[in-house]
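Quick one:
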Amino acid sequence: MRSWRGVRRWVSHSLVGVTLVAGVLALGVPRGTAVPDASPPANTGSTDGQQSPAEPTSAQTLPPRIIRVEPIDDRRSRVFVVSPAMSREVEVQVLLPLDRTRARPTVYMLDGRAASLDSNNWIDFGHADRFYADKQVNVVFTVGGPASFYTDWQRPDPVLGTNMWETFLTKELPPLIDAAFDGNGNNAIMGVSMGAEAAMMLAFRQPTLYTAIAAHSGCFSTGTDIGQAQARGVVATYNGDPSNMFGQRDDPDWLAHDVTLHAEDLRGKTMYLSVGSGLPGEYDVPGNPDLDVVSSVGVGGPLEAATNVCTRRLAERFASLGIPVTTHFRSTGTHSWPYWTDELARSWPTIATALGIP
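Output:
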C-alpha cells in the first residue's frame, strides 16, 4: 500500500482537471445534467421522510426483508425493504422482463449526485425503463441517496441521515431480489457521475458480487488530495458533512475507497468506461427540450471535461496493469443525460455478453 503522501504525488498532474470538478459542483448543474434537481434538502435531520439518524427504528433489530411491493405498471414496482444497516425502510424500484419463466441476471442502476427521493434519474431522464423493456434481466433502480456515493458512512449525518448503502446494496438487498424476483445470482452494476464512482467502488470492495460494471462520466480517486476535494465538494453541495463519510482528511478510509489505487482488485471483471470531452455536442443545441443549453455548455461542459481527465487516468491505470477495459471517449458531449442515455445502449453489448444474455 502506498503512503498517503506517495499517493498524492502519484496523481499530482491531475490537479487542474479534478479541481474543476469540485468548482463546477459548487455551482450546481441544470436540468438534464448529472443533477437535474440541484436544490439541497432542508436541514430536517432526514432527507427521505424517515426517522432522523438520532431516532433509530426497529429495523435495526430485524433481519432484512421485503415488507411490501407496490406495482407501478405491469413490469415495474416499488419494493420496500427493511434494512437493519440503514435503520429504516428503503425503497428500490424493480423492473422485470417480459419473459419471467426462467431465472435471469440482475442489473443494479446507481443514480447521480441529485438522486431523486421518489424515483431514479435513469428512469426520469435516461429512459432506462424503455431501454430494458425487451431485455432478459431484472433491473434494480436505487431510490434516494443524494450525495451519498452509495457507500457506508462512518457515522450518521445531521442532514443526509444514515447512509450504509454499501451494506444495503451488496449484502442485504441481492439475496432478497434473487429470492423474490427469480434472480440467478449473476449481477452487473452501472452508474453515472457520482454513481459511476460508486459502481466501481462497490465492485472492487465486493469482488465476488458483480460480473460486469459500466461507469459513465465519473471520477475515481478519493485517496488523493484532489480526489478527496471532489468527493467532499459533492457531499457539501447537499449540506452534508464529508467527514461523516470517510473521516478527516488523513483517515485511511479515503484510501480504502480509491478505485484507481485498487484497480488490480477489478482484474477479471468486464468493465465499460465512457465520458465526453466537454465540448458542445449533438444534444447541446438551442431548442432541445431536454437541456438548458446555456447551462449544459457553461456548467456541464467544464464538468465533463474534468471527468474526462478522471476517466482517462483510470483507463491508463488499467492499461499499465494489463487489465482489459472497454472505453468510449467521445470527442464532444457535456455532463448531460442525453449522452448517458446513448451510453446505456452502447455499453449494453459489453454488459450483456458478460451476463450471458444473447
